[in-house]
Amino acid sequence: MATDTTAASRTHTFLRVSIALQTLTLFLQAVSAGLLLSTSYGELLHAVGARVMYGASMLYVLAAILAWRPGGGSLRPIPHASVFLVLASGQVVSGIAHMPSFHVPLGVLMFGLSVLALGRMTTTRPAGRASFRA
């Protein structure tokens, strides 16, 4: 029983870290977008950041699957992570196509949703760690 609780806690932590990494990379993308407009190296930073952000979205999907299947957690994070991956794909396509009227609002939406997901994960307890009151 203790092993199950430890595994659930570990996968829940991995899920939290992956959401935090995704949120951080989205924030850094907003910063690099500002640098894109004002410096010569901003385009390089934004391009590298796009790859890191996409990788963080894929990591979020992997963490959601691992938290569900071996960790015995909820199935709910998997659709959320999958939607983030689809949004990240749209973000990459709209950025490559130079469509700022779609790219910028989608980035703002993704950052907002990521902050909400991060807030939800930090306020909920993993399965099996409920507190008991006497």
Brief account:
By secondary structure, this protein is an all-alpha fold. It has helices at 2-38, 42-68, 77-96, 100-123.
Unreliable sequence segments:
129-134
Average predicted local confidence, pLDDT: 86
Roughly what fraction of the amino acids lie in strands?
under 5%
Task: Tell me the Rg in angstroms.
Answer: 17 Å
Largest sheet: none
Helical proportion?
A: over 70%
| Span of the ends, CA to CA | 21 Å
**Counting H and I runs of at least 4 residues, what is the number of helices?**
4
Q: Would you tell me the structural class of the helices and strands? A: mainly alpha
Number of domains: 1
Number of strands: 0
Shape: elongated
Keywords: Membrane, Transmembrane, Transmembrane helix
Protein name: Membrane protein
Transmembrane segments: 19-38, 44-66, 102-119
What features would you highlight for this structure?
Membrane protein, mainly alpha, membrane, 4 helices, 134 residues, transmembrane, transmembrane helix
Verbal overview:
The protein has 134 residues and is mainly α. It has one domain (2-123). Helices cover 81% and strands 0% of the residues. The protein has four helices and no strands. α3 (77-96) packs antiparallel against α4. It is elongated and about 50 Å long. It starts with a helix and ends in an 11-residue tail after the last helix.
